[in-house]
């Protein structure tokens, strides 16, 4: 080799091996596993270990099913007898679905469908005892198929889900990118430098206008970067790309067809569907994104303030999400329009605060409570129209109390700049909902002495007379014992089930807790509710969650399905059909 090429070759080799070497040292010195070993492990070790685990769990399911059959035959409650079986079946599902470190079992696989069928049949047994033979046959078939170690099945799983498949390599590559020691060390410094030099918050974030200043005098060019609103890029792209129902979006799953299919599935179970499409932040605050009024003039003077507000609202009402919601309403679906009331409520922002958080995709507690009021109103209208029939009014009382929480926005977190305090912590005041439990009890009071004396005078010569008269002097009083308990889902008593995304989770399970729209909806209705929430996955993933435990639909009369408008295009896993 020519000597002049040696140095470039050495430098190139060092640069080529540097990331791998640094990652190896970081992994071996730290507690994390050495990721390149995952490939070797998933080919040689994981398949056999997984087969053994699946076989052991299947054997456990068989034992518990046999015990449940005997208990039911002996007169035990079906729900109590089946509880261990349901738990064991869930363990079997988890073992079967996780093929290796980076791949999940395809939902089209026969094993997946058999597990879902068994889950469905178990949930039906309590109400439909005639389905017992079918459930028995299904579980016996599962145990026969999975209750032994199969080297051939392990080989096929390696073949279809192993390192040579695109799904595995894509997940492996993403994991390496996310956990690379060099990336983790250098990316934050790079992001901070780009932010300081160019006010660029990163690829997932769009920098909007200043929080309290709209118009020509304080648009993008003059507002301090740290004072501008942050928008999630997918929220913005949803508005500027073609509608999910446009012919140009033909490659996407059709959300309307999926919603229609879900409605029909629920109707077959006696459950009504209510669709709630949550507006994204730029649909409600387009002016905060652009820094200009809707007319493009950048002038928000008092003389045309009313016209400006009307123009901004018109932009929100032209959102793809609002148009799809209107089309669902015209097609006869039960829907809730949150666009109109939220846009109208902006007129009170200067007094009551904004409806959405500055550096977050989500609404403020005020926005959540407005949504809860509107949804509750729609449900009451459905009841009045006879669309939904609940049993007698539940004696459930809820109260609310103020609670202040600090919020670091999720969009700021996506930018990677929160760790450098590039954006301000936003204080929010939520109203935490608690359940008020009131029980009455009767307590005897001391006898009225004047009454007893009068009885003695009236019955001087007759003991029986005195006994009868003095009995009238006994007094009772009703006392009320009040206890306050935190709000919680009630899957057993509730007739309303809510499926939702992070807009249903915020303030509900994170700080200040029990202050989200779900709790306030229950308070407005004076009824218990139950919920299943999947962050970013309300299009398909939350329905799959429901399908895995379809028994929760027992006794339900109404299912409220909340999802943010961007999921109509960008929903995780698209808009697949989910079998129940």
Describe the structure.
This protein is an alpha/beta fold and 580 residues long. The protein contains 25 helices and ten strands. It has helices at 6-29, 36-44, 46-73, 78-97, 110-125, 132-146, 151-161, 166-179, 181-198, 233-240, 255-268, 281-284, 286-290, 305-317, 320-330, 339-345, 349-352, 365-384, 410-415, 449-458, 463-471, 502-505, 517-525, 541-548, 567-570; strands at 205-210, 228-232, 272-278, 334-336, 397-407, 426-445, 475-486, 496-500, 530-533, 558-564. Strands 4-3-10-8-9 form a five-stranded parallel beta sheet, sandwiched between helices. The protein has a three-stranded antiparallel beta sheet with strand order 5-6-7, covered by helices on one side. Strands 1-2 form a two-stranded antiparallel sheet. The longest helix is centred in the N-terminal third of the chain and has 28 residues, at 46-73. It is globular. The N and C termini lie far apart (67 Å).
Helical/strand content category: alpha/beta
List the uncertain runs.
Answer: 214-220, 294-307
Number-wise, the strands total 10
The count of helical stretches stands at 25
Mean model confidence by pLDDT: 85
Major sheet: order of its strands? Answer: 4-3-10-8-9
Helix content: 40-55%
Our measurement of the CA-to-CA distance between the termini, rounded to an integer number of angstroms, reads 67 Å
Radius of gyration: 31 Å
**General shape:** globular
- Which range does the strand content fall in? 5-15%
Largest sheet: 5 strands, parallel
Question: What attributes does this structure have?
Answer:
25 helices, 10 strands, globular, 5-stranded parallel beta sheet, 580 residues, 3-stranded antiparallel beta sheet, alpha/beta
